[in-house]
Specification:
Layout: H1 9-21, H2 23-27, H3 36-52, H4 62-90, H5 102-110, H6 113-117, H7 160-169, H8 181-225
GO cellular component, one term: nucleus
Pfam family, one: Myb_DNA-bind_5
Subunit structure: Self-associates forming complexes of several hundred monomers.
Length: about 230
């Protein structure tokens, strides 16, 4: 909306504080109790709280409030990503970090860490697009043809000999080799070991992220002391 004043610090504070009160409902999964109407009611409440401390005329709309929240969230993510990259460059040593604003610190306390910086080596879930689940038509009806390209006889024109010939050309299924109980048990144990290895790797990544987070917090404390 052109000509609209920038959000004041009071507006941003009211926005983040009220979003924090309804965070789980605003961004939770839909259910019988948590409907789209309920989410809209909560966003209206956030908008009312912002307009209570706003001087904007006409008052802020829900669309403005949602857009501003995304902007604030993006700013927090950019700072955290930059700090994380800086820590990687120094190998966890002394690094020059960008401090978060008071609004940014509140958002960090609300938003899951993985949503802010993602999982190292994984996907950024904020960039995943919604896929239309419309079913695909994978079946097409074509006129059957013989191997030499000639049109096969229709069912009404075919004779018994033709059907016998077709049946003879159908490849017989291969006999399935039954696996012994020991082989099956070994395969299951191998899968369990693989799953444990994957879980261990994920836990190690989470541990690295927590260590980076602690290093960043320590650096922030040092900056505040100085």
């Amino acid at each position: 909306m052109s000509g609209r004043p920038n959000f004041s610090s009071n507006e941003c504070e009211a926005l983040v504080d009220t979003v924090g009160l309804h965070f789980d409902a605003l961004f939770g999964k839909f259910s019988l109790a948590l409907t789209n109407d309920r989410k809209n009611e909560l966003w209206n409440d956030v908008t009312q709280k912002v307009n209570a401390v706003s001087t904007a005329n006409p008052p802020r709309t829900v669309a403005e409030i949602k857009k501003k929240y995304q902007v604030l969230k993006t700013n927090v993510k950019q700072v955290e990503t930059a700090n994380s990259n800086e820590m990687k460059k120094t190998g966890g040593g002394t690094a020059t970090l960008q401090p978060q604003s008071s609004i940014g610190e509140k958002l960090l306390a609300l938003i899951p860490r993985v949503e802010i910086v993602g999982i190292e080596g994984g996907l950024d879930i904020s960039k995943l697009s919604t896929i239309d689940p419309a079913p695909l038509n994978l079946i097409s009806i074509i006129e059957p043809t013989a191997n030499n390209g000639e049109t096969r006889k229709s069912i009404t024109d075919a004779t018994t000999d033709d059907f016998d010939e077709d049946v003879a050309q159908i490849p017989k299924p291969k006999k399935q080799v039954k696996r012994s109980a020991e082989t099956t048990l070994f395969a299951l144990q191998a899968k369990q070991v693989k799953l444990l290895e994957v879980q261990t790797e994920q836990l190690a990544r989470i541990g690295d992220l927590l260590a980076q987070r602690n290093s960043i917090e320590q650096a922030k404390l040092e900056l505040m002391k100085n």
